Structure formats: structure tokens, C-alpha cells
Amino acid sequence: MNVSRIAILGVALVAGAAAFFLMLGQDKDVAPVQIVEPVKEETVRVLISTRDIQRGERLTLEDTNWVAWPKKAVQPTFITDENSEAREKLESAVARSLIVTGEPIVNAKVIRAGSSGLMAAILAPGMRAVTLRVSPETSSGGFILPGDRVDVLFTAGRGGGGQARTMFEDVRVLAVDTLFSENTEQAHVGGTNVTLELAPSDAQTFTSSRDSGNLSLVLRSIFKPENEIETTERRSSNISVIRYGRS
């Protein structure tokens, strides 16, 4: 073996040894790779609505479902699967107020089947429910539905020949006959009894006025003019109603 080959072989051995020791030094400086497993969040099954349920509608089994809900976000009012029969017990219950799709169902928003006082639950706190027998002529052609807002007009005299005035403005319609739901596919309801929501003092005036004259309901638009002034008092002063261009 000649001298040049021996020299090349020596250089190669020295280079290999240097690379080996260099690699060992780097391994000592590199931190070991840690595999972090994601923390699994604890969940609880919560009963939610599978569709928009309007006030006054009855719930069916298909209207609710169990879903996993983060345990830390569960409120005490939520209905959980701690009671396995909670979903079945809500069947035929009535919605006290609007429940939107995906919203957890709480006891405060439903009236369970068999419970009395549906109308009492729909009423706003401190308000009273009064009922008026109407005809198409005295109820905007029968187009008044639960949830609408109306004005109540009073005409003195049973014959209806007196001057009409506005007694109450912006009154909420609670029901038409026995229909409470605000979500109806009918364009109008041919009901004969309309239940309204009034303050206690207004309810007294309303009841006494039924025997001394005629009451009519005028449907209000759901849109308010930009320049309309908000009023807190429903009862207005005597206002002449314009009829066919005459006051």
C-alpha cells in the first residue's frame, strides 16, 4: 500500500471520528421530545330544543334532544340527564316564552302537561287578561292573531251611533279563542273571543265600558314610524276618529 492511500485512509478515519464525537455532543444538548396528550373536557348531557318553539306551542318528543355540554358551562337551571325521564316528562308541555333552536330548555320557560294556569303564565307580571267578544267588523276583519298589538276603540251607546274614541293604545293580544301560539300558518283566525293584556285599572275601565257602548279592535302595524313618540300610558284622551274624510 502506497503512502498516498494510507494518508487518505487516515484522513477519513479522523473525519469519521470527529463527526461521531460531534454527534454525541449534540444529542446531549437537545431536549427530549415530549408527547402531550390533549386534556379531555368533562361534559354533561343537557336537554336542548331542536327547533324554534313559539310561546303557547306544545312540545313533542321530537322537539328536544340530549347533547353533550361542557360541565363548567352548565347552569343550575338546565335540564340534565341526571333524571333519565326528564325528556319524556316534557312531552305535551307548553312553551311559556320563545325557545330558539339549540337553546337549553329550562323549567322557567315551560309549563308542564297537566299544570293549570297557562294564561296566568303568559301574562306579564302585574298585568290582567280581559276578553272581548268580537265580529269581523270589530276585529279588523279577523286578521288579529296572538302576539299582535291593537288599539281599543270605544263608541258610546249600544247602537254604535256615538263618536268613537281611542281608549287604549298598543295593547298586546294574548289569545284568539283558545289559540295562544304566535306562530300560526293561518292568515287570519275567525275567532269570536279575543283576550287582551291590560293593567289592573285599565281592565276595570274596559269591563265597565262593555255595558255602556261598543268596543272595537284596530290592528297596529309591527313597524313604528321614526318620529313616533313613545308613551308609557296606554289610556289616551278623547280622540276623534276620522271616517271617510269626516271627523
Automatic annotation (TrEMBL):
It comes from the Bacteria. Keywords: Membrane, Transmembrane, Transmembrane helix. The keyword Transmembrane helix applies. The chain crosses the membrane at residues 6-24. Residues 44-111 form the SAF domain. SMART domains: SAF. It holds the Pfam family RcpC. This is Flp pilus assembly protein CpaB.
